[in-house]
Amino acid sequence: MYVKRLNVGRLSEERLGEAEGELEVAEAFLADGLLRNAAGKAFQAWKSFLSHLALRNLALLEERYRGYKRVGNAAVPLYEWIAATAPTSRLMEIAVLLEKAVPNAVELTALALQLHEYQYNGPDPEGVRSKIPDDETAARLIATFIARLKALLLSHKGAKGGGL
Prior knowledge:
Layout: E1 2-3, H1 8-31, H2 35-56, H3 59-62, E2 68-71, E3 74-77, H4 78-85, H5 91-98, H6 105-121, H7 135-158
Parallel strand pairs: 1-3
Antiparallel strand pairs: 2-3
Helix pairs in contact: 1-2, 1-7, 2-4, 2-5, 2-6, 2-7, 5-6, 6-7
């Protein structure tokens, strides 16, 4: 087994492009009233963008994620693998680590995870399977999330270097 270092610069840019594309699809689905599809694409856009941010701020993850992840015959540094893949089960943890460099990362991650839950479970007036009680609330949350992520992407495009 050998240690494989990821091309984090290339991956970061790919994840950014992926986030922009997913967000466009989320907007189109929302405009067409396909709310659960829009929620899923909005979630994927955030997951891709958070991965991009993590790849640009690896030093913030390195302490927390020590060791290696076996990938085929290679061992990839765990912090690089976590940043590149942004596992759903680790999104909140990643957001907390990035919060210093990326204000509102925790808040937007929490909202993205609520949209992800809604995507799979739909509206739930009782609040058992989803915290989103109806489609009207979902549509407003999705629109708010899309607007916030679009603004973040626009401000990010003007920023260079680490952080945002």
